[in-house]
Amino acid sequence: MDTPHEAGYDAGVGTGESSPQSVMPRPSGPREARPKDKLHVRGIHVRYANAVPVIFRTRNFFAGAPSSDMVAAMPPVVSIRNLSKTYASGFHALKGVDLDIERGEIFALLGPNGAGKTTLISIVCGIVNASTGTVLAGGHDIVRDYRKARSEIGLVPQELTTDAFETPWDTVSFSRGLFGKAPNPAHIEKVLRDLSLWDKRDNRIMTLSGGMKRRLLIAKALSHEPTILFLDEPTAGVDVELRQEMWALVRGLRDKGVTVILTTHYIEEAEEMADRVGVINHGELILVQDKAELMRKLGRKQLILQLLAPIAEIPASLEAYKLELARDGHELTYTYDTAGERTGITALLAALAEAGIRFRDLQTEQSSLEDIFVSLVGRHK
Amino acid sequence: MSFNHHAVIAIYNFEMARTWRTIAQSIISPVISTTLYFVVFGAAIGARITDIGGVSYGAFIVPGLIMLSLLTQSIANASFGIYFPKFTGTIYELLSAPVSFVEIVVAYVGAAATKSIILGVIILATATLFVPLEVRHPFVMAGFLVLTAVTFSLFGFIIGIWADGFEKLQLVPLLIVTPLAFLGGSFYSIDMLPPFWRTVSLVNPVVYLISGFRWAFFGAADVGIGISLAMTLGFLAACIAVVWWIFRTGWRIRT
Asked: Which helix (H) or strand (E) holds A252?
């Protein structure tokens, strides 16, 4: 099941099949107009498939270093095999998902609303029963050995579901007990301090702000010292400052050896945070890729030349450029690496002039994560 | 880790904290309403009613009043305790925790029953202020108190899981339990009814609870203590079976 993901990815990017017609500018977005020359495709809002708006940004994509290579040899901390879920309503939320999460990585599960992200997390955490398939968490079967499996896991739900009348201190202590750990006031204090909730420890939860409540849910999830943390849409409806805080917090946890699995529909978040990215849509995992690998592929750009007169074949003198001929000989595509010292564009243009091929227009296209995503999601409709 | 006692303690304490936090609603209001029953039925009307089986009417209604509160409060406490996390969504934590259904039931039902028992004792103490009371079989009385509190807390737990709205949460106590409790001989002996209605009363399970409890107080009752005990235990077994089925199938809890 691993190869189809790769194949899906390569088909989407390698042949440049991304479908620009499905990328429509969203009038209400902050940067509504899609640049006509397509030279700087970033920070736009797109509409696709079920018209779910997703924010894509390619900025900051080159930040961060791969780390999952180093731990790849260890057994996966979460191992999902052939996981399917059909709800009583007949809705097929997951369709045979296979996924391994490596110990110590940050894994981002990316997909539009209703793609199956929350169902996947809910099954692993024990809230929803799977229809078929097996899941091992920390090496323990989540059904047969649920006590050991669940003791390893902390879950931060998407909704701000907290009690109202209890205090942060009480509710975090409660969570620790619920997960079978003996009381440890020192640990509770540390968790509350780490999440800047110490000053609020004796206040009623209902008096806390939304950001504090979200941090409180994280504190509850960390109360029993889990080795695997699930964050379901951790930054949905969270302001920019808090989002940065959240990211810093998650990185801090990873540094302490906690494996973090987060779901998001912000590509930006996956880019910013993850060591690996999985794209899920309509209950199928359609791409699992190391982020560094993804970045490398994203570094490629295409120069598209519209020819004045169609040519039947590419002249032998241009063979070195690995050009592709399209649209009945009206279009030449040159793929190059933006990260390279030389892009080869100048030489190519000179060679074209020498070969007597004239063009009336040219454009460049960057195969961004957005393009991959749109093409993948569109393909799997 | 065969029994997650930390979780049981955590849930139990959480539920009891709710009791103390809502002390007025939880304890004081049942005490006030029970006092009103004493004033109306015991003093005002009871003074004109002759003794029943050698027991003054004021004393006669004490076991019935305690049972009435025990039934309604056990159901209310337990149903609310499990329904509220479902309503707010905080049940996610319970479902994702390494706790078995036995532990969940022990903790929730234990807390609800504890609260009801405290309430029963308070009502009993309040009653002694109004009427002279002596309990013939204190251990049997205590046993019936605990058994009834546990049984009806289980029943309430089932209602709390079944309910998907606040209306349903009120429906069963209001439409079924309260009428059964009133018609179960809280305020009269079923021997006082015409033969037909006396026979009808015998299908009311609450009759056996109140009768057994009254036997513990006065050594005499409408039906034999053995039958009372058997009926109560039977209802307890039925509730346990339903709860077992609920957790086995994940009905209304896990999709």
From this structure: helix A240-255
